[in-house]
Amino acid sequence: MYQYDVIDREFLIDRSSEFRGQVGRRLAGEITEDQFKPLRLMNGLYLQLHAYMLRIAIPYGSLNPTQTRRLAEIARDYDKGYGHFTTRQNIQFNWIKLKDAPDILDKLAEVDLHAIQTSGNCIRNTTSDPYAGATAEEIDDPRVWSEVIRQWSTLHPEFSFLPRKFKIAITASAKDRTAAKVHDIGLLLRQGRDGTHGFEVIVGGGQGRTPYVGPSIKQFLPTDRLLSYLEAVLRVYNRHGRRDNIYKARIKILVAALGAEEFARQVEEEWSKIDAARADLPAAELARIRASFAKTPFETLPARSEAFELAKAHDSAFARFVRNNVRAHKQPGYAIVEVSLKAPEQTPGDASADQLELVADLAERYSFSDLRVTHAQNLVLPHVKQDDLPTVFAALQAAGLATPNIDLISDIIACPGLDYCALANARAIPIAQDIARQFADPDRAEEVGELKIKISGCINACGHHHVAHIGILGVDKKGEEFYQLSLGGSGAEDASIGKILGPALPADKVATAVDQLVGAYLNVRADGERFLDTYRRVGLEPFKEAVYAQAD
Amino acid sequence: MPKLIELADGEARWADDAFVHVADEDAIPDAGDVILSLARFEAEGDALLSSNSRRVGVRIESDQEVEVLAYDLPRIAVVALAFPKYRDGRAYTSARLLRERFGYQGQVRAVGDVLQEQAGFMVRCGFDAFEPADGATPEAWTKAARRFRHVYQRAADDRVVAFEERAS
Q1: Count of CB atoms within 10 A of residue A150's CB?
Q2: CA of A273, closest CA in chain B: separation in Å?
Q3: Are strands A185-191 and A197-203 parallel, antiparallel or unpaired?
Q4: Is there a single domain that holds both residue A282 and residue A337?
Q5: pLDDT at B34 (0 to 100)
Q6: Is B93 on the interface with A (CB under 8 A)?
Q7: Model pTM?
Q8: In this structure, are residues A5 and A289 in contact, taking their beta carbons and an 8 Å threshold?
Q9: Is the pLDDT of residue A552 over 60?
Q10: Dihedral of alpha carbons A492, A241, A57, A209, sign
């Protein structure tokens, strides 16, 4: 993992003391809430329905055990004993008191964590592949480039007052676990014919009111030119993005209005004028950053672990966990373990202080002190020896963290919704719990296979419903919560925006409707087809009929 | 006269503002330094400058591009970049381009919704004069501009960047 040096640490201390001063002025009544709002938002502090919410950045979703334990401590001391992981690999605490916020930021800074740029119209935390450094698919470690961007974008003097927020995702694997194509910028690392590396640059993807799968504006950006090219994209956006209407201010609107080709032309023109020697990162600094992600000291192990095979053969619960939550590792004898935060009756993405501490211990003991957060709101132990899998499974199971449902129907992404959020029109969490209950039978869930359900409590789409196989959007109909279903979205490498199924349904009909959709899928699916594949083959009609036929 | 803070050698001070902002509907005073809108400058700037008796500045709104001044920059004493709201960040780009792309040596002045919380960003982008809208004093401005001991990216100032500190 990247190790903060004295410069990174002093930077966080300066930031924390700046915020303490601002909070002090607010509490003393020297500045009004209106004047304070932009200052607190720059430190991730939102005023929600019931309390302040603090969003803490987890750069590219990577945590060490010390940081994880500190998050547990904050959950216990300043919140109600839990935290909520978000779709951008961050963590939110929902019950924060304003007077405590400076102390919390100090405590975070002690372990190299912060809340910088988790809010506001700036470059937000860069997200990346939670399997980085562990999957055999990747052509390079995307964390290197994520860290380059973290530093470059931190309090960027030119790009801290953009028309709107700006989110970057990076992946270096063919399989995209970052939703890169629905980000403001998605960087897909590719290997060129000559063996050199470059980024395919996707710009202007997004969700919210106007969802877009972003177009590609550059097929192969040499990696050492990354920062100057980002500067060119951001500069074109900063100058020409709309500022008259908050709903039309994201870069996707500019790219759509100009057309991808014209936008790309403007970026190229600006890029050609930038002094590369000043804008691009010096090779020595890149090498320093790369060295801090140096190879994990894996042991040389046989590809097959007898202990692991034996446990699988004798323990069907363990075997099920392995089928669904364990992924292939690039190093023989190791595995990637997904820790599900989607247990039945749990709020998707929530983790208690005890659970955080347990996972920190497991990461320390069994995963080279490395822990990841996924955009699907789960955790990952990226480097576990196959020999240790039974032990790790038992520990997770005892803590309610071994639900064998990764990418299955109950692995639901949900925003906090009307239970917490000031913007929401409807609740998201109880709907997720209803659906999970409906598909509680693990055999049935496995039979249904990969099915990504995502729920947003309003059109801002924090729950990613546009890019769900089955998307659920909460709407307000004359004071009542209704839910609009959409089908066929994907946030992965085969990205697409879902299509609306039909009229919105009342809350108590949603889980039943999902059940009907699954029934229709099982009726017509061909061998090996996921729900999404079947939908793409047969279209909306059979699904529409399954849900609405009886109602007519 | 609006109060003007000037920054020199990392120190912010009150300054006597020799310039008068001339609104488009007002007549240009007979003498003295003036700051004109871009349209006014394009129409009357040549005549004013050729008289050689006073200095001329230009006010650039946030939706105007500084590139249009490229040819005239050596003759312009002040470029005043407008912040209609502090949230409108276009002037940061304008300031950097003036300093870094065009090598502009004159004064780059922040006008409009200019708040001390933005001081650090403004200074880094090459602004060296400020008409604060929040009653901020030079002391607050100096402090805000120096709040961070380190910076992570090159900009229009001469600060040593984190990766340069590490390499030295």
Answers
A1: 23
A2: 8
A3: antiparallel
A4: no
A5: 97
A6: yes
A7: 0.96
A8: no
A9: no
A10: negative
Q: Quick check: B53 pLDDT over 90?
A: no
> Mutate which of B92, B115, B159 to test chain A, going by most A C-beta atoms within 10 A?
B92
Number of domains in chain A: 4
The rounded mean pLDDT for chain A is: 95
- Give the pLDDT of residue A39: 86
User: By CA distance, what is B144's nearest residue in A?
Assistant: A18
Q: Is B96 on the interface with A (CB under 8 A)?
A: yes
pLDDT at A38: 84
**Looking at residue B2, what is its pLDDT?**
57
* Calpha distance A408→A396 (Å, rounded): 18
Q: Which two tokens stand for residue A551?
A: 């109602």
* Cβ atoms of residues A378 and A94 within 8 Å: no
- CATH number where A158 lies: 3.30.413.10
**CB A282 to CB B117 under 8 A?**
no
Establish if B14 touches chain A: CB-CB under 8 angstroms.
no
Give a yes or no: residue A122 inside a domain: no
Residue of B63, B153, B166 to mutate when probing chain A, most A C-beta within 10 A: B153
- CATH, residue B13: 3.20.20.70
Residues A133-155: pLDDT tens digits?
Answer: 999 999 999 999 999 999 999 99
Give the burial class of B86: count Cβ atoms within 10 A of its Cβ; 0-12 exposed, 13-18 middle, 19 or more buried: middle
- Containing structural domain, residue A532: 413-551
Nearest to B57 by CA among B28, B77, B37: B77
Which among B117, B152, B162 has the least Cβ separation from residue A39? B117
Distance from CA of A234 to the nearest CA of B (A): 10
Give the three-class secondary structure for B16.
coil
Q: The CATH number of the domain where A371 resides is what?
A: 3.90.480.20
Looking from the CA of A452 toward its CB, the CA atoms found within 13 Å total 23
Find out whether B153 and A152 touch, Cβ atoms under 8 Å: yes
Q: How far is A278 from chain B (nearest CA, A)?
A: 7
Q: Which of A189, A173, A242, A185 is nearest to A214 (CA)?
A: A185
Chain B: residue whose CA lies nearest to A276:
B154
